[in-house]
Amino acid sequence: MISVMLLFLCLFQGSVQGRYLLSSKSRPSPDDAAHFARWLVSQSSWGVISTIASNLGGAPFGNVVSFSDGKPGKGKGIPYFYLTTLDPTASSALKDQRSSFTLSEYSIGTCGKTDPENPTCAKITLTGKLKVVDGKSSEAEYAQTALFSKHPEMKDWPKSHNFQIFKLDIDDIFMINWFGGPKPLTVDQYLHA
Amino acid sequence: MISVMLLFLCLFQGSVQGRYLLSSKSRPSPDDAAHFARWLVSQSSWGVISTIASNLGGAPFGNVVSFSDGKPGKGKGIPYFYLTTLDPTASSALKDQRSSFTLSEYSIGTCGKTDPENPTCAKITLTGKLKVVDGKSSEAEYAQTALFSKHPEMKDWPKSHNFQIFKLDIDDIFMINWFGGPKPLTVDQYLHA
């Protein structure tokens, strides 16, 4: 009986942060840059979008956001966001689309005790243009399903806040997942992995 | 015997991401903006620094970094970093100091199942100037102790990479930790909390 209770406690603790602590079994080899990058993006649920803040002297302004590139296990590599102009990121992007989106493998739980800045704990920055997705397009439908399946509470967020779907059109990929500097990886290789 | 093994498994799982899953007991009231912000910064071990990337058309470039604002429980609110110009962030900052540093409460484990973009899961962005700390100053000594106590492996990172201590001189604080938009909080209130 005590064993069962402890086992239950274990399982609960494993998801106490609102997501599963992933095993590293599905982690691609660091040498396979395209698949590794797609794995890292599809396993992540949040990151930091940086935009240019005209109200702060043109400073680069990072902001925590949730995202999704597709239903679990079916991501296409393009990050979609659910943003309101009540938050500075969306309003900045409407003035200047230049932006980047940054993720750490540390947040998905497969770095073990390795430091988040150690190159073997992967990180990726996708640089590009942050754009509104036409709300009546089939892409918006895909993106909404992608977002709501990974972030169920989004569907109940206040209608009055006018959340809109945004996407990052990727121009450049910076990924470090091992020693020796960023992995060479084109946007085309990434999207077709 | 099985109980003991399961208990051990529980404890191991609780720290499997290289840090403790914090209890929320020490979490200040969201109304107490200054103490909340200082708590969030001092409990965190990594975040995203954004700088201006001149090699990417002036795009805002976010990068995952480790940091420390002091020894555990003794932070002063100023984030210190251990960076090498082999990484683009440090070299960008030497050309243009404008930058921001962004943290999510989600990464310290006290948001439960709340979505990372939900305003009750706190986030903070410190905007300012990213500057090298004079390696011979007492501030550098303080910062190195702060960094190495929270990131023990840093002291063994390759000397040939010429890691230097950087700090963020904070000009502006953006924090959301509840409904109703960003909390009013001056840099002076934050630093003297």
UniProtKB/TrEMBL annotation, chains A, B:
Keywords: Glycoprotein, Secreted, Signal. Residues 1-18 form the signal peptide. The keyword Secreted applies. Transmembrane segments: none annotated. Gene3D superfamilies: Electron Transport, Fmn-binding Protein, Chain A. One of its GO terms (cellular component) is cytoplasm. Its main location: secreted. It holds the Pfam family CREG_beta-barrel. InterPro entries: CREG, CREG_beta-barrel, Split_barrel_FMN-bd. Residues 28-191 form the CREG-like beta-barrel domain. The keyword Acyltransferase does not apply. It is found in: Secreted. Belongs to the CREG family. This is FMN-binding split barrel, cellular repressor of E1A-stimulated genes (CREG). It comes from Heracleum sosnowskyi. The lineage of its organism: Eukaryota, Viridiplantae, Streptophyta, Embryophyta, Tracheophyta.
